[in-house]
């Protein structure tokens, strides 16, 4: 068989109702598959106010809003209507992109119908409790994730560093890579816009420390703001530019009263905003890849990031940016100060990052995942598939 023979049922906890890096990657994947004449059907919660139009056919899965984070929805068990739709569609592979209730239900449906399953890992869910004073839950979450991923025929991670974490956690025997790409027409050094900077009161000689992402605590907002406090106490001249929206914006604004909040940006506007920074600070440890890190590199600006999954596979420490021990505020501040006081070093590291970013082509990356689908379907048909991890215990 080849890619055009695929009939993929893709389950997502958030395909398009809130914009984030994971669901944008999924939509790009579906677009690529459809161009290869594969068939794809997406099952996800929906709302009346989606963040963007979905790519491909989207079937609504019953869901409920999270009480303290109503912008997100939790998928429930597959309804009889969804199961009827699945049966009529008759997929030959199931892709699970979030370990939620609907995905657990989908694993049971796929096993019953002898359909191979692949799971993609998009975020480190087990680390989230750290940001809400519930770190004691982490081992429980790891155990739950292990049970889920071991039921799949294979799992894919967006970076080598995250794949190694999954192997160390014994999540599955078959761990592959589905990386991320970057649109070089949008994210490029040429998109830097001096007039746009000036519109925010940023002088041409100002060194701008940027943050890009959803404004939620799990993105490391506390570490970011503590680092900026250190820079200010040291008297290092700089400006702070925050790009993004989210429920923690009010908290972030109160912590950084001198920062410039540009709000949500997308497409060419986002490329312009990133290229108009002088350095990016990304202290998050929850990313499995770090789309914003790659986008900043493509724009030719150096990245100061946590030495954690995702950034470890992207940033060459001391060459295209700096990798800092998670939470080490003083070291983050040291790295930013070096760039602020030595713009030539920042330009050198930024240029190295832009060269590395040239490797990341969306079509090449998505083709690799499509070939993994084909392999799993073929293995199931030939009876040569690897047994799911749980069957080997």
UniProtKB/TrEMBL annotation:
Pfam families: Glyco_trans_1_4 (PF13692), Glyco_transf_4 (PF13439)
Keywords attached to this entry: Glycosyltransferase, Transferase
Enzyme Commission number(s) of this protein: 2.4.-.-
UniProt superkingdom: Bacteria
Listed GO MF terms: glycosyltransferase activity
Glycosyltransferase subfamily 4-like N-terminal domain segment(s): 20-185
PANTHER family hit by this protein: SULFOQUINOVOSYL TRANSFERASE SQD2
Protein name per its UniProtKB record: Glycosyltransferase family 1 protein
Annotated source species: Alterisphingorhabdus coralli
Organismal lineage: Bacteria, Pseudomonadati, Pseudomonadota, Alphaproteobacteria, Sphingomonadales
């Amino acid at each position: 068989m080849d890619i055009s023979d695929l009939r993929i049922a893709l389950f997502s906890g958030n395909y398009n109702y809130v914009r984030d890096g994971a669901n944008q990657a999924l939509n790009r994947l579906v677009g690529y598959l459809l161009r290869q004449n594969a068939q794809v059907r997406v099952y996800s919660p929906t709302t009346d106010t989606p963040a963007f139009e979905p790519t491909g056919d989207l079937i609504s899965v019953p869901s409920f809003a999270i009480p303290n984070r109503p912008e997100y929805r939790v998928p429930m068990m597959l309804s009889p209507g969804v199961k009827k739709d699945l049966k009529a569609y008759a997929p030959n592979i199931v892709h699970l992109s979030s370990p939620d209730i609907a995905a657990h239900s989908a694993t049971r449906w796929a096993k019953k119908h002898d359909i191979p399953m692949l799971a993609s890992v998009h975020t480190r869910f087990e680390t989230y409790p750290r940001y809400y004073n519930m770190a004691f839950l982490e081992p429980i979450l790891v155990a739950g994730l292990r049970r889920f991923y071991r039921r799949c025929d294979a799992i894919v991670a967006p970076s080598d560093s995250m794949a190694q974490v999954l192997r160390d956690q014994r999540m599955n025997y078959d761990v592959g890579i589905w990386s991320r790409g970057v649109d070089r027409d949008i994210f490029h050094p040429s998109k830097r816009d001096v007039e746009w900077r000036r519109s925010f009161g940023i002088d041409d000689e100002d060194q701008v420390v940027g943050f890009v992402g959803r404004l939620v605590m799990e993105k490391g907002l506390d570490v970011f703001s503590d680092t900026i406090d250190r820079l200010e106490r040291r008297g290092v001249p700089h400006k702070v530019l925050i790009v993004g929206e989210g429920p923690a914006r009010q908290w972030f604004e109160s912590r950084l009263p001198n920062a410039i909040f540009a709000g949500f940006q997308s497409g060419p506007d986002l490329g312009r905003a990133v290229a108009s920074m002088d350095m990016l600070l990304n202290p998050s440890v929850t990313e499995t890849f770090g789309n914003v890190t790659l986008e900043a590199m493509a724009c030719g600006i150096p990245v100061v990031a946590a030495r954690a999954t995702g950034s470890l596979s992207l940033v060459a420490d001391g060459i295209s940016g700096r990798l800092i021990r998670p939470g080490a505020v003083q070291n983050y501040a040291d790295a930013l100060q070096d760039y602020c006081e030595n713009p030539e070093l920042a330009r050198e590291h930024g240029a190295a990052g832009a060269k590395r970013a040239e490797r990341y082509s969306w079509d090449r990356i998505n083709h690799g995942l499509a070939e993994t689908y084909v392999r799993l379907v073929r293995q199931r048909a030939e009876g040569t598939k690897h047994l799911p991890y749980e069957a080997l215990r």
